[in-house]
Specification:
Helices cover about 25% and strands about 35% of the residues. By secondary structure, the chain is of the alpha+beta class. The strands form 3 sheets. The protein has a 5-stranded antiparallel β-sheet, with helices on one face. A 5-stranded antiparallel β-sheet has the order 7-6-10-9-8.
Length: about 375
């Protein structure tokens, strides 16, 4: 398209015939200067028309968030070169929410007073369904630029966690952590084939544990990474607490001079927590024998006593809180040893029961 000159009358006609939120700019030395702003245009920025005019009267790019200005100016330069319509999405400053996203459709109109003129029609896209939906999810969700890590979006749950929401123009690591480079534990750095799932990761800055999923996406036309995070601090600490408790329990029963085993019973099933060396020996197990489950403990019980012993242990968790019995260890028809078994169960806060079973060798008394 060749450069064409437009008159003041033609310009006024364009202004009167356009009912939307629009602006007409004169590009002077690469700077977009407003020739006309529609009456409702300033509402996108949360400003009054007077405030909007004061900010942008000599350079319309001042309304654009600083990190997006270069890209928008480049798009305008492209229009002047090709004379073809174009569309672009970017952020403008907002009086109360720091910034909003807008989508612009721009067209070259011609030359006016010796300068190229462009008309841009704007649509506010910040209230689109995706952002609104994410703001009402219970998860922690944010989006950052793939290359710069600039935060492009953060859900309300995220900003509540961070304690502030003025993230516009800042990187995720800079805003959240005050760092100058990505966090050493960042899951994004470990992405493969555009995604990653991390079952559990510790955040030392917040002293919390999170489950993380990251995906490469397009966010308003930009290459970006979406981070979905769930707070798993409570369950992680409960699991670690249980592990530590089991380790402490093992250390304690290993020091007891009799055979001791500890079971956990919950939701109709029993599992072994730990046994000491003496219990293994009295039950006829060698050091290398693996106790995979509850039933493994009855393998060496004399077949004539196995049912009695099993029923006594199961009753420990269901019908009563203690038991005692005498039974044999060994195979039928061979030498056997005799043990005195005694057990008690203790209800736990999570609804389970811990059962403690002790064994004493009474073979000598039986012989």
């Amino acid at each position: 398209m060749k450069n064409m000159t437009i008159t003041k009358q033609e310009l006024d006609c364009i202004i009167r015939s356009n009912p939307g939120d629009f602006a007409i700019y004169k590009i002077e030395n690469g700077v977009p200067k407003p020739l006309h702003n529609s009456a409702s245009l300033s509402a996108h920025s949360g400003m009054s028309p007077e405030e909007y005019e004061a900010l942008s009267h000599d350079d319309a790019s001042k309304v654009i968030l600083e990190n997006d200005r270069a890209a928008v100016i480049a798009s305008l330069a492209g229009i002047l070169q090709t004379k073809e319509d174009t569309e672009y999405t970017f952020r403008i400053v907002h009086k109360t929410t720091q910034f909003v996203w807008v989508h612009a459709k721009a067209r070259y109109l011609g030359e006016y007073e010796g300068c190229p003129v462009i008309c841009s029609i704007f649509t506010d896209t910040s209230g689109e369904s995706l952002s609104a939906l994410l703001d009402h999810t219970d998860g922690i969700v944010y989006v950052c630029d793939s290359e710069t890590r600039e935060l492009l979006y953060a859900s309300k749950k995220s900003t509540d966690l961070w304690g502030r929401s003025n993230y516009g123009g800042q990187t995720c690591f800079g805003f959240i952590r005050g760092l100058e480079a990505p966090c050493p534990w960042c899951s994004i750095l470990k992405m493969k084939n555009g995604e990653i799932h991390v079952e559990e990761i510790y955040d030392p800055g917040l002293n919390m544990y999170f489950r993380i999923d990251c995906y490469e996406i397009l966010w308003r036309g930009r290459k970006a990474i979406a981070v979905y995070s769930s707070d798993v601090t409570a369950e992680s600490r409960a699991r670690k607490s249980l592990k530590n408790a089991n380790e402490d329990l093992k250390a304690q029963i290993d020091g007891i001079p009799s055979g001791v085993a500890v079971f956990r019973f919950k939701d109709g099933s029993a599992s072994l927590v730990t046994i000491n060396v003496i219990f293994r020996k009295l039950m006829g197990m060698d050091d290398k024998e693996i106790v995979r489950d509850f039933d493994s403990l009855f393998v060496h019980v004399h077949p004539d006593d196995a049912r009695i012993v099993r029923e006594a242990v199961i009753a420990l968790f269901s019908a009563r809180h203690s038991f005692s019995c005498v039974h044999r260890i060994g195979e039928a028809g061979k030498d056997v040893s005799w043990v005195y078994a005694k057990g008690r169960s203790v209800p736990q806060g999570d609804g389970s029961q811990l059962g403690y079973v002790s064994l004493t060798d009474i073979t000598a008394q039986k012989e």
